[in-house]
């Protein structure tokens, strides 16, 4: 199937371009309207089946290539193959990533996938297709996915970029589609394009600031000073006992070190470390008396001149999932590692 196969595909491409060029804001003031220097667009594409998927994505890629704009695709494996087959030789000009691998932890998508690509082209507009939510996502992962989609709007303020996010309306729950309407200012489907009347990304961030899952028979250690040897040893022992593969155990130790250090520096001077399991994950949990006020903490790429602040970024990079809950009295972060191969 070719890139411009049919009238519907040409129309879909025109709709995406109209979103990018409209410069409008429909969120009741949660974000600023785009100016000529703030051309960020973040539409959701609602699709049913392979034909509608290609109708909404191929013209987007075609328009980017025609304009000489860098384009990246980060979607689940089956859809990646669908696009690769449809693009043929043109796929060589597109950065293509399997989101089930690159974005397994939703908390690292902004820094490593989206900003990673956009920042490699600092003086050019970029187009990205990002599909972070698919039917195989677990209930444990979903709150982090919804917050990720909401945070894209903050992370790309002022950037000349368009990020198109496909949603499979046949496979995903209606509540997921409702959340997508709240995290994307513009919605595209087979009927056309429209401004979202439910756009409220900050509300989504707050709504999914949920209490974290309980751990099964956790071991605990209170860290009150700079010596983290005890916490690291306990993390290693518990990870090995739980069945974390050997090559991932050093990552567990690293995460415990970074989480505890972050609490000592920014969370009131103590860190309650809890280590246990939930389902098929081994979990490193650290709780402190601080309040995390920056929802993008750990989700921005680091800069060469940056003196510190890389700890949370590193945690997101090596963990299979990171969940955070904060309230007026405390912050709790859980880093999850899959058990077994």
From TrEMBL:
Alphabetically ordered keywords of this record: Kinase, Serine/threonine-protein kinase, Transferase
Region (Disordered), start-end ranges: 14-35
Residue ranges constituting the MEDS domain according to the UniProt record: 42-185
Gene Ontology MF annotations: protein serine/threonine kinase activity
Domain Histidine kinase/HSP90-like ATPase: 228-335
A Pfam family reported for this protein in Swiss-Prot or TrEMBL: HATPase_c_2
InterPro entries, per database record: Anti-sigma-factor_SerPK, HATPase_C_sf, HATPase_dom, MEDS_domain, RsbA-like_anti_sig
Protein name (database record): Anti-sigma regulatory factor (Ser/Thr protein kinase)
Organism placement in taxonomy: Bacteria, Bacillati, Actinomycetota, Actinomycetes, Pseudonocardiales
